[in-house]
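Dear colleagues,

As part of the handover before I leave the project, I'm documenting each prediction I ran so the next person doesn't have to rerun anything. This entry is a single chain, and its sequence is reproduced below.
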Amino acid sequence: MMNAWKYTGDWTEEDLTDGSYAGFIYMFRFPETGQVYYGSKQIYKRVKTYKKIKSNSIENGWREYSSSSTTVNKLIDEGAEYERVVLWAFPTMNETLLAELSLIVCEGLQPNCLNYAVIHKCKLPSLNDRAKIFNIMQEVRSYL
């Protein structure tokens, strides 16, 4: 059984599942060592935008999700204390992946960061939406 998700700011589990979001970015934090890992998770199977969420959409296992990182999973399996934190949710997976990419690029060189790769290809938003995403990422980084 995984530790319950924590949420930054005003985010809640109800927000994630209210039909407005397709994915979220998260952080695994290991308080004893200060190590962190950043990732993203799609909320519903085969749903890449909130516009496609239906009443019968099936969740994508996010509630019990650990990580795609073998390092993170090994630490958890070895009994390390950890927190799972939802940092921010996005209406599309493209925005979610862009935010994850931004987070890893900005924080990945910190010596406590457990991320080893950046393997995303995502489309930059329109010029009008870039400021919105930039401001969101500034707020997310304030939570770290």
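Residues 127-143 form the longest helix (17 residues). Residues 5-143 form a domain with the GIY-YIG endonuclease fold (CATH 3.40.1440.10).

All the best with the project,
I.
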